[in-house]
């Protein structure tokens, strides 16, 4: 089970357009929503120190379990949405979904190919990837941050990895279709040299015969028409 990370937060009273002032002070606005057991939470407005929170959040994935400590009240949660500045890439807002540690949840976990395929090295082949996420169901504390798939299994052109080939903990149920492709191997496409022009036009040129013009000036007119 991955180590649970705790992030210190404070309750936030500022909302709406006024959060711009918080950002200028180096504060990151966020919210917690979701359900703990049978209790539906009212959205909790919170805030973090932007610098400290960014160092932690940038290491997390969508399936990382974190504990948000809001002035002593602790909420197990996962990240649901991150908003970033489109120019500088700094965090602007984070949505956390509170989860119950006793109830299973369904979520998508990213797939990561690790290692190098022997087919790439020995056969100059190319590894083609399929789906990039796996839908799973488990308790929040059993969520993997990512699912690593060993690319060294791809040893020849016939090698293929399907979802059914993935082995996870018995605490995790895979919901994705077992026949979905994760990775396979294919030959590198080799471009052939274009053949020398042959045919009627070449014969006419050899005989110094000027070809008949079907539509004089058609080329330039056609180009202008196609560009409109």
UniProtKB/TrEMBL annotation:
Residues 192-203 have a biased composition (Acidic residues). Residues 104-187 form the Large ribosomal subunit protein bL25 beta domain. Residues 7-96 form the Large ribosomal subunit protein bL25 L25 domain. This is one of the proteins that binds to the 5S RNA in the ribosome where it forms part of the central protuberance. Residues 204-221 have a biased composition (Basic and acidic residues). SUPFAM superfamilies: Ribosomal protein L25-like. GO terms for molecular function: 5S rRNA binding; structural constituent of ribosome. The lineage of its organism: Bacteria, Bacillati, Chloroflexota, Anaerolineae, Anaerolineales. GO terms for biological process: translation. Part of the 50S ribosomal subunit; part of the 5S rRNA/L5/L18/L25 subcomplex. Contacts the 5S rRNA. Binds to the 5S rRNA independently of L5 and L18. Residues 192-228 are annotated as: Disordered. Keywords: Ribonucleoprotein, Ribosomal protein, RNA-binding, rRNA-binding. GO terms for cellular component: cytosolic large ribosomal subunit. Belongs to the bacterial ribosomal protein bL25 family. CTC subfamily. This is Large ribosomal subunit protein bL25. InterPro entries: Rbsml_bL25/Gln-tRNA_synth_N, Ribosomal_bL25/Gln-tRNA_synth, Ribosomal_bL25_b-dom, Ribosomal_bL25_C, Ribosomal_bL25_long, Ribosomal_L25_dom, Ribosomal_uL5_bac-type.
């Amino acid at each position: 089970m991955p180590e649970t990370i705790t992030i210190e937060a404070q309750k936030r009273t500022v909302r709406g357009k006024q959060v711009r002032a918080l950002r200028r002070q180096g504060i990151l606005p966020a919210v917690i929503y979701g359900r703990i057991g049978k209790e539906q939470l009212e959205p909790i407005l919170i805030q973090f120190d932007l610098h400290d929170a960014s160092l932690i959040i940038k290491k997390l994935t969508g399936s990382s379990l974190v504990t948000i400590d809001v002035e002593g009240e602790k909420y197990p949660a996962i990240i649901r949405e991150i908003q970033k500045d489109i120019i500088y890439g700094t965090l602007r807002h984070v949505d956390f979904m509170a989860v119950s540690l006793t109830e299973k949840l369904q979520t998508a976990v990213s797939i990561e190919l690790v290692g190098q395929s022997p087919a790439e090295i020995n056969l100059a082949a190319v590894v083609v990837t399929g789906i990039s996420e796996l839908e799973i169901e488990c308790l929040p504390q059993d969520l993997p941050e990512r699912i690593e798939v060993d690319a060294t299994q791809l040893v020849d052109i016939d090698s293929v990895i399907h979802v059914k080939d993935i082995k996870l903990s018995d605490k995790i149920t895979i919901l994705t279709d077992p026949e979905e492709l994760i990775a396979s191997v294919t030959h590198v496409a080799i471009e052939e040299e274009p053949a020398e022009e042959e045919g009627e036009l070449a014969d006419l040129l050899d005989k110094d015969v000027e070809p008949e013009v079907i539509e004089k000036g058609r080329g330039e007119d056609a180009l202008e028409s196609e560009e409109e």
